[in-house]
Amino acid sequence: MQSLVEHARTFTEHVAANAKDFERFADGQTPEALFVTCSDSRVVPSLITGARPGQLFELRTAGNIVPPYPGRDRPTGEAATIEYALCVLKVRDIIVCGHSHCGAVGAILRGDDLSAMPAVRHWLERSADGRTPPEDAGDLPGAVQAHALAQLNTLRGYPAVRERLAEGSLGLHAWYYEVHTGSVSIHRPERGTEFARL
Question: What is the pLDDT of residues 16-52, one digit of tens each?
Fold first, then answer.
């Protein structure tokens, strides 16, 4: 914790040295993409993409799960984030990035007993809703990739996503990140469910 505190203490010096870069943030944000990924501390979107502050709008959830659109009666933080990214920030792309060694997808794949963690169990059961990973996904990497594709399908159920897709003003992308090698693979729709390394 102390190293985090020390960095926060000296961060204003970094900002002062790069004042022009940071001053523009007072005018608002115009991120290029919404990056949906796992809460896992080993997954750092700005490191993976090289994004500078202001380039990515992020949504992080356990297992990079996108829950089904809740409707007006049951709003969720996830739905609000997606809607804001599309309707206000006008992001042009949404990336759902799964990762190797994912505990959430592994728990779904193995059928782990999560009774000691009822919130986690409920999140995985209700949000994944038995949709992912499919039984034929095979090993964990395959299951994580299938899981990322399933989240894209869930996104297509969001009214704002449907509207932007119909306009042709939104791209949906599934990525797979290996935490131990740093390699990134992306889904190639023309090849079915296949992911290919960048």
Answer: 777 777 888 888 899 999 999 999 999 999 999 999 9
Place of tokens 């990079």: 64
> Whole-angstrom Cα distance, residue 36 to residue 98?
9
Nearest Cα to 149, choosing from 82, 64, 85? Answer: 64
Q: Are 163 and 155 in contact (CB under 8 A)?
A: no
Q: Give exposure, 167-187, as e/b (b: 16+ Cβ within 10 Å).
A: eeebebbbbbbebeeeebbbb
What per-residue confidence (pLDDT) applies to 132? 46
What is the arrangement of strands in the sheet containing 195-197, beginning at the earlier edge strand? Answer: 56-61, 33-38, 93-99, 171-177, 184-187, 195-197
Which residues, at least 6 apart from 158, have a Cβ–Cβ distance to it below 8 Å?
69, 79, 82, 83
Are the CB atoms for 108 and 49 separated by under 8 Å? Answer: no
Q: What is the mean pLDDT of the chain?
A: 90
End-to-end CA distance of the chain: 35
pLDDT tier at 13, thresholds 50, 70, 90: confident
